[in-house]
Structure formats: structure tokens, C-alpha cells
């Protein structure tokens, strides 16, 4: 259904702006001289598809190397105990998986929301696809953070689960990821699905600080939590090194996994375009 | 602009009052859910007094959820929602009128029935008072945030279940502060003050942003 009124408004509002943005002959000369590609070149699924394909092996191998190296460093080159008076013994080593996954789960949601915003503002298809490709990886990291946290909690707190603020926040984050994916999956029309799910991601982003704060301080007069406050500054150098190495490794893994998923999404959605047909017709002959 | 607001408000109220069962379903659901808990938990007064605030608030969330599905659905089915989108009035304003009508029909009855519910749970007079006030502040937030979800899931298969999946996590702050205010005020009457301020702040934020977001979601849904 067309919104006639809106379209008229859009034309009225946008026409003068668009004409001024067109390069005039005098100003475009300087632009043409540079043969370098503009960033928007990669905003097209057709050009990004091969680029993502070339990047996946690099990120994938970097992820494997970094994770193996950091796990080795974390397991064999770090002190046996963590903390001073009430020290945590060997079991603290789950920190090398637990903390990076928790960080990734939060970072990925923010990146998802950024891509959703870019998609809503510039109406670029690839941004929506990117957001859509990030969601499962983010949910995976959230789940991993909860799962490893349960094991760590069992050994150090004596319980798998507690309604501690950070545990609860992570659980809510997991629900938000699931909600995004569920809404996207429930709508058949890709265009509507992209935009509706992106709007939901944005609403979630605005609500996140409020939700986190409400869980953190159910009683505004006094805030308490089982989790200690973040103490990266005082931590042992070797432990910090292993943790940051794991984080970098997880970043590389995220890039690789998201790009792989993205390639699948691009092929599914662009299935009826010429470039996909050409690509698929070429491939059996070994030309890529 | 005020005319259009009143017009939509009066229309929605009139339509709802001609189909009264739909209005009372949410209210009855609320009463039944709240009455089931003592049957399941047992009728120990101390336990009921402790659980009461949380139970009443969770039931209020579920009741608000139940009614949300119908917020835009009827207008969507008969095409009048498209006409609303075509009017020169700002859509967020019209959506706001619909949300207010929805709250008058589903949220306000909860506030009015709250003293009876409080009696079932043996809440003290000050706790009952706080319960009514927090419901008065909190239930509009439920309608406002819920409207975004209702617009996003408009016309989808299994929209109702999906709606609860999307919106219930966003209801958490209201639940936390609403229930907590009631439970602290059962011991000290004035202890609920900070919670009222927090709920009020969230209500203002929701009043400001939720109609805009719901309007954007409606445009996406009806494109």
C-alpha cells in the first residue's frame, strides 16, 4: 500500500537536497582524478560477497591461533591462584573463556544495533543482512557466558545460578537476541522483517541501560552484588594477557562466523539476481 | 490537533464499550491469575503478604500483555489503520490517543480493583495504598511500551506469543520497582518514595519515545 501523502512529502523535502548533492562539473574533477574506491563500493552485497569470502580464512586462522595460544598461556603460564585473602584456586582459569564471552555478548549487541541504525537511516540492504548475521553469534556468546559462569559459580559461590545482577542482565541480553531473531524469522517479507527487527533492536538498546540499572539496584537506597567490581587494573599481567588474547581471538572468530553466515544470507536473498546466477554458473567450471 | 486526539480516544472507547466482554477479559484474567496463587502456595498469611506484591505485578504484566494484541488488530483488519496513516495529523499523536484509550480500558480497571486484590493477600493499608499508586504510574508504561510490540507484530502468524517474547523483557524495570515499592512500604509507609520517582521517570521517558517508536513500527508494518 502506497502512502501517497508521505511520498509527496518526501519528494518535496528531498528533491532540493538531492540536486545539491549531485556532483557539479567543476567540483567532480578533483573527485574523478582519484581512482580509489569509495567506502560505499563495499556496501553492495554483490561486491561484499567475494570480499567476505577472501577475509574468512584470515580471520578464521587468526582466531584458531589466538585462541590456542591464549589458552596455552592461560593454563600454563599464569599463577595457580587468583586473589589475595580468599584466593580462587585452579578453577579460576575459566575466566579466560567466561570474561571474553561476556564482553563479546555485549559488544556484539551494540554492533548489531549500530548496523540496524545504519540500515534504517541509509536503507542499505547489506547493513540489515549484517545485523541479521550477527544475532546468532551474539546469542551464542551470551549463552556461553551464562554456561561457563554457572560452572564457575558452582565452584566459587557454591551455586550454579543466583539472581545476581550480572547473571540476570546477561539472561535478559539473551532474551533480547532471541527476540530479535524470532521477530525476523516470523515475518516473511525480508524488507519488513529487516526494518521491524532493527527497530526492535534499537528499542532494546535504549531499554538495556534501564533494565540493567533496575536489576543492579532493585533497592535504590543500597546496591549490592555477588560479582566483584571490575578490577582489570590490579590483575596479574599474564592473566590479563591471556584474557585479552582470548578476546581478540573471539573477535576474529566473530568476524569469520558472521561473514560465513552473511554469505549465506546474501545468496538466499539475492537468489534471483544476475550476479548470483553468473556466480553459480561459473563455479562448476572451477573459475571463481 | 487536540480535536483529532479526542476524536480517536472517543472512538476507541465507544467501540470497546460496545463489545464489553473484550474489555473485561483482561480484568477477569488478572483477578483469576491472582486468585490462583494462594490456592497453589497455601494460605499462610505471612507467605502471602511476602509474595503478594510480586504476584500482583506479574499478573498485571500478563494481563496487559493479553490485551495488547487487540490494540491495532481490529483497525488493521477493517482498513481504518491505513486511513489513520494517510491523515495529515502526526501519526505518533494518533497512536498516543489509541494507547491512552487502551490504558483507560485495561490499565485503569487494574488500579481500581487493586484494593480487593490486596485484601486477598492480607496487605497492610499503606501497602495497598502504594500498590494502587505504583499501578497508576506503572500500567501506562506497560501500555506505551507494549504498543511498540503490538505494532511490530501486527498481522503476523502467532503474533500473540511473539509479542510476549519481545515485550516481557522490556517490562522488567516496571516489575522490579513496582513490586519492590509495595513490599518495602508494608513495613515503613514512606519507604516507597524513591520507587515512585523512578517509575515516574520511566513513565515520562516512555510517554516521550514510545508513541514515536510505535508510529514508526506501524509504518513498517503497513508499508
From TrEMBL, chain B:
Membrane topology: Multi-pass membrane protein
Transmembrane stretches, start-end: 23-42, 54-73, 93-118, 130-155, 161-183, 195-222
Record's GO cellular component terms: plasma membrane
Example of a GO biological process term: cytochrome c biosynthetic process
Record-linked Pfam families: CcmB
InterPro entries in the cross-refs: Cyt_c_biogenesis_CcmB, Cyt_c_CcmB_bac
Subcellular location(s) per record: Cell inner membrane
Keyword list, A-Z: Cell inner membrane, Cell membrane, Cytochrome c-type biogenesis, Membrane, Transmembrane, Transmembrane helix, Transport
GO molecular function per UniProt: heme transmembrane transporter activity
Record's function text: Required for the export of heme to the periplasm for the biogenesis of c-type cytochromes.
PANTHER family: CYTOCHROME C BIOGENESIS B-RELATED, HEME EXPORTER PROTEIN B
Homology family: Belongs to the CcmB/CycW/HelB family.
Name listed for the protein in its UniProt record: Heme exporter protein B
UniProt organism field: Thiospirillum jenense
